[in-house]
Design a protein that fits this description.
By secondary structure, this protein is α+β, with helices and mostly antiparallel strands. The protein has a 5-stranded mixed sheet, with helices on one face. The protein has 2 domains: 7-40, no CATH class; 49-122, 2-Layer Sandwich (Translation Initiation Factor Eif1), CATH 3.30.780.10. The radius of gyration is 20 Å and the shape is elongated. 26% of the residues lie in helices and 23% in strands.
Length: 125
């Protein structure tokens, strides 16, 4: 006899009484607390240290500088990323609260982020 993994039910996605509902909290989208937190730019949790490291894994050998732990969210994080990209003269992106700048710019980014008054550490090798 083959055993199957249990199917997990995430909740109601649509209700005739409420309309579309949030799968995370189950409230109607108009009253969803999850969406308000994302839209208001609630600060992500962290230990208060901004870490700057370099990664090449999964990028076919092309290195990127990764900035994690920045105490900003939403539009503020995007604006900071744009400023850092402009200062380094290279491209980059923001993914899941992490800033990625193309190339190895760790020294420049540590100095720039330190000027903002944050505790900055150079992580990795």
């Amino acid at each position: 006899m083959t055993s199957r993994a249990p199917v997990t039910f995430r909740g109601v996605v649509y209700s005739t009484g409420l309309g579309r509902t949030c799968p995370a909290c189950g409230q109607a989208l108009a009253q969803c607390a999850c969406a308000r937190d994302k839209a208001s730019g609630a600060k992500p949790p962290g230990d208060g240290i901004v870490r700057v490291s370099r990664q090449v894994q999964g990028r076919k050998g092309k290195g990127v500088t990764v900035v994690t732990g920045v105490p900003l969210a939403g539009a503020e994080l995007d604006a900071l990323a744009a400023q850092l990209k402009k200062r380094c003269g290279s491209g980059g992106t923001v993914k899941d609260g992490v800033i990625e700048i193309q190339g190895d710019h760790r020294d420049a980014l540590v100095a720039l982020l330190g000027q903002r008054g944050w505790t900055v550490k150079r992580a990795g090798g």
